[in-house]
Structure formats: structure tokens, C-alpha cells
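hiii, so i know i said id send this last week but things got crazy w the move. better late than never?? heres the sequnce for the chain we talked about at the cafe, plus the structure i predicted for it. fair warning i was half asleep when i ran it
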Amino acid sequence: MRRTHRWILALASPIVLVVAGAVTLDIWARSHLAARLPIDDLTLADEGPPGDVEAGRRLYQTVANCQECHGPEGAGSLTIDDGFVGRLVAPDLTGGGHTPASFDLAVRHGLDPDGRPLVLMPSDGYAALSDKDLRDLLAYVQSLPPSGRKLPRSALGIGGRQLVLWGQLHVPAYLIDHDQVGAPSDASAGEYLARVSGCYGCHGDDLQGRSLGPTLPPAPPIGGDALDSWSEADFQRALREGIRPDGRALDPTMPWPALSRLDDDEVADLWHAIRNVR
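okay and structure toks below
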């Protein structure tokens, strides 16, 4: 009997340790997501000259590609709904309830009105948005008629919280230098496009590719000499038609339909910018 007890304890001990470790990590992940950044210390956009609605529409549909998550009419969408990972919702942007400060907080800082970090909001790229482009984007969003759509709130499950903990679900607020948001930049036009359109967000800080999580294929390298076998015309075709030089289609995760609306000068600027990343 004693031998049986020892055998049971020998089996149970590792299980208890694993469970205790998982619970500890989940508590840490919950506190990580619930932490508030001191938003009173941030310099946020204030009232100023009204933005250009048409310029904002183009940003929404093309460069920033907000429509991918929030929909073409800004009514929001349920982007992830999984029993283990949880529920992530891109909220309804319509109805005109945004101030310059609250819009800046969400878009360029990746924070909700209480200072809690937003998950999957690509604010690490949007942090580069100029004040003018932010105002133009806000002007377009404020012009959208109320959709009346009712969406649930985001709520991560234990799987989603663990993915956040291990960096597999994006929480950009912890990556942004908030003091530099909105600061004047000497970036080239192509570098600006690469930042705001998410090239760095998907392909990594050096554009040499990175993992996008457990359910998506890795983003390939595109910076420096990674596309040496491509011509500028190949790059333009990839953005216009979603086709690689070898005739294969780009992975559906690549937002080429939005980028296909870039004009020829913008495509050239973007091509030269990513080629110059070393």
C-alpha cells in the first residue's frame, strides 16, 4: 500500500507543478493585460484644423488598411472567436463619438480610453502617422453614418492570454516609444509608407521575416537583398495583382488588395525603401 502511495505521489507531483505553473502564468498574463499606462503623461492630439475626408478615406482603405478589421463601412467585425483563444472584436467606428485625443490614444498609442493596451491593433506602425494624416483619418471616420451594429466586447480566453504572454498575439502598446509618437520625422516617403502600412509590423524590425503566430504562415524576408531576384516591375505586379515573379499567388495574409491602390510613385518609393533596409 505504501509503495502504491509513493507511486501515486510520484505521478501527481509533476502534474501539480505544471498546473501551478500554468495558473501562475495566467495570473501574470491577466495582470499584464489589465495594467494601465499613465495616459495623463502622454501628449495627445488636440482640437485643430479639420482633416480632409477624402484623404482620410484613402488612408482608411489603402495605406493604413483599417477596413481589413473594421470593415469597409467602419462597422467593426469579430476578428477572432475561438473557445480557447477567446474573442477579439474590432469595434464599430461609426457614430462620430471620437475626439482627437481618444482617437490618437487608440490609433497611435494602442490604448483604450482607460490606458489599457489593445490587442492586435497595429499601433506600432500607426505610431508613425503624422498629425495631418491622423486628422484626415479621423475626419473620414467621423463622416461615417452610424451603423447601429451591436458587437460583443473582446474577451481573451486562457489560450489567448498565453499567446500574449509568449508574444504570439500582438500588444503594440508595450513596444511603442510613446514619447516619440507625433514627433516630427525625417523618414523618406517610402519609409513612412512601410511603417504605416504594416511592412515592419509583419516582416519584422529589419524586414527579414518573422513568425505571425501559431495559425499563420511566417512573414518572409523582404528587406535589403531578400528580393534580389525581383525587379521593381515584379514588386509592382505583386502589389497590383498579388502574384509573385514565379507566378505563384501571394499568401492571403498579405494585404495586397489594399496596397494595390497605391499610385506608381508610392510603389516606387516603397520599393526603394525596403531595398535600402540593411
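btw Residues 2-34 form the longest helix (33 residues). thought thatd interest u
miss u guys!!
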